[in-house]
């Protein structure tokens, strides 16, 4: 992301994830505390029309990070006091929570439509836009030209729908969280080099499995670990990195992934390179270098435990695994802390060196059509949004909380206060303002070894594939074949790698997808959706 993103005090934004970056500096002219909330003196926000008039602005928040935590009264919320003073407004922030759609529908039906509405995913935003809730922002944004500049163009592009800007990027997802990790202690002991291609990778996996790399005289180690998520997919899914995903990317393909090549939609489930990747995965499994527990590892925690136990030499893991909290888990579970290090993805036979795809901007924040009925209120609401994403003085309070309670600032450089020194539950609500944080804010993520962790993230982000398609496309709800098609593809992939179905039947599998499960109809649907969004002509 660009460093000037949101002109914010520090770079940041998250989602389930984590990121790294250097610590940006910022002068904190405001010092909100539990009882006092002086203004930040926000001189960087454009002065709104009718600046002397105070507006009450309601904000339906579905992108905060503690949505089930009740917000305190204004007297106990110095961040809200700061926001209201700097923007000459009364802020009514309504938390969405797990049942956010039901709550939003209730507000709409009772004619209490919020002025500002955020959505955790683009598909939901589009649905409510089509139903008449969200307003087009193109004309209003002409009066706030600095606001779009706060976001990387790749994040702004998904905010367009049917040729209109229906929102602005809300929370910034972290990219390149999971990368290739290798046990460097084992590499050195067995006098091996870091693998750079599939054959070298397999050779190292075999050595890690059969050459007693931990020196205990037992045949109890494995070269690789993967997982099989609950949806049964070996490839692209909502479950995150799985191990085998990265093997497919080594061949430049990904099952269940929709892509655009040469202006045409492609689905890699039938690509010949997918067959090659499946052949390599089967070779790994047949060589017994993959921890056999992979078929029962269906969540990230179970996969993490394999790293902590120290019996696997190569795996796909979170970039924070060198942080003290993680190495302690390794010490506790495995009795030692191996010299784990991140490496670049091995380069595939066609020159592909892909770790994953860049995050697609899902969440967005926009204005309701109801708010647009009052031009002054609409401008004040937009001023507030611009303040959230561009005001350098406000940023540390929005992202880090309460000065001298949850963070300090020395010579303009912020630092989080150790959470064990105060009752964080008392101010957990502060995270509902933190969605503005940048995905590269090491202060927010509180890295204890920022040099190592930031370097890991740099490696990962160097090998991310552009992605402006997934999850933009979706199966037609009226398509009776969609779920059966996905289930069939997942089952066949699993059968191919485990030998229950010979790969000589690949052509039969492809023909079944196309004929029985109407794959070409799905591709036509995807093409129509992407044409409507202007991604392809």
From TrEMBL:
Keywords: Signal. InterPro entries: Bact_solute-bd_prot1 (IPR050490). It comes from the Bacteria. Residues 1-20 form the signal peptide. SUPFAM superfamilies: Periplasmic binding protein-like II. PANTHER family: ARABINOSE-BINDING PROTEIN-RELATED, POLYGALACTURONAN_RHAMNOGALACTURONAN-BINDING PROTEIN YTCQ. This is Extracellular solute-binding protein.
């Amino acid at each position: 992301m660009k460093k000037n993103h949101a002109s914010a005090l520090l770079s940041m934004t998250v989602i389930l994830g984590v990121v790294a970056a250097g610590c940006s500096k910022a002068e904190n002219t405001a010092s909100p505390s539990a009882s006092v909330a002086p203004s930040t003196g926000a001189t960087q926000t454009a002065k709104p029309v009718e600046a002397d008039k105070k507006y009450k602005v309601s904000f339906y928040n579905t992108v905060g990070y503690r949505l089930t935590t009740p917000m305190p009264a204004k007297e106990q919320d110095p961040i809200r006091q700061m926001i209201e003073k700097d923007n000459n407004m009364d802020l009514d922030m309504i938390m969405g929570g797990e049942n956010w759609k039901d709550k939003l529908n209730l507000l709409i039906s009772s004619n209490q439509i919020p002025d500002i509405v955020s959505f955790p995913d683009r598909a939901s935003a589009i649905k409510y836009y089509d139903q008449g809730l969200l307003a087009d922002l193109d004309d209003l944004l002409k009066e706030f030209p600095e606001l779009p500049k706060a976001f990387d163009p790749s994040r702004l592009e998904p905010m367009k729908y049917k040729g209109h800007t229906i929102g602005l990027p809300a929370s910034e997802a972290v990219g390149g969280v999971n990368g290739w990790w290798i046990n460097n202690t084992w590499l050195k002991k067995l006098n091996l080099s870091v693998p750079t291609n599939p054959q070298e990778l397999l050779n190292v996996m075999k050595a890690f499995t059969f050459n007693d790399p931990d020196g205990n005289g037992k045949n109890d180690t494995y070269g690789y670990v993967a997982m099989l998520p609950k949806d049964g997919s070996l490839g692209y899914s909502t479950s995150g990195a799985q191990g085998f995903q990265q093997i497919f990317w080594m061949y430049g393909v990904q099952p269940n992934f929709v892509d655009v090549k040469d202006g045409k939609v492609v689905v890699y489930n039938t690509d010949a390179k997918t067959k090659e990747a499946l052949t390599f995965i089967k070779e790994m499994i047949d060589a017994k270098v993959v921890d056999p527990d992979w078929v029962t590892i269906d969540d990230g925690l179970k996969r993490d435990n394999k790293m902590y136990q120290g019996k696997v030499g190569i795996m796909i893991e979170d970039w924070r695994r060198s942080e003290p909290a993680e190495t302690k888990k390794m010490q506790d579970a495995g009795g030692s802390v191996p010299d784990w290090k991140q490496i670049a993805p091995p380069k595939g036979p066609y020159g592909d060196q892909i770790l994953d795809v860049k995050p697609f901007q899902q969440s967005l924040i926009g204005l309701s059509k109801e708010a647009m009925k009052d031009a002054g209120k609409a401008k004040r609401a937009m001023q507030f949004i611009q303040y959230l994403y561009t005001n350098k003085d406000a940023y540390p309070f929005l992202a880090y909380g309460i000065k001298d309670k949850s963070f300090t600032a020395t010579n303009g450089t912020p630092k989080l206060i150790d959470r064990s020194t105060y009752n964080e539950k008392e101010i957990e609500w502060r995270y509902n303002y933190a969605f503005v944080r940048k995905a590269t804010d090491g202060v927010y993520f509180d890295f204890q070894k920022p040099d190592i962790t930031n370097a890991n993230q740099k490696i990962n982000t160097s090998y991310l594939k552009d992605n402006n398609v997934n999850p933009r496309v979706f199966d037609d709800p009226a398509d009776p074949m969609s779920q059966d098609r996905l289930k069939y593809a997942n089952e066949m992939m699993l059968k191919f790698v485990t030998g229950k179905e010979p790969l000589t039947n690949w052509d039969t599998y492809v023909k079944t997808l196309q004929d029985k499960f109407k794959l070409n109809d799905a591709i036509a649907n995807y093409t129509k959706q992407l044409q409507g969004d202007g991604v392809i002509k």
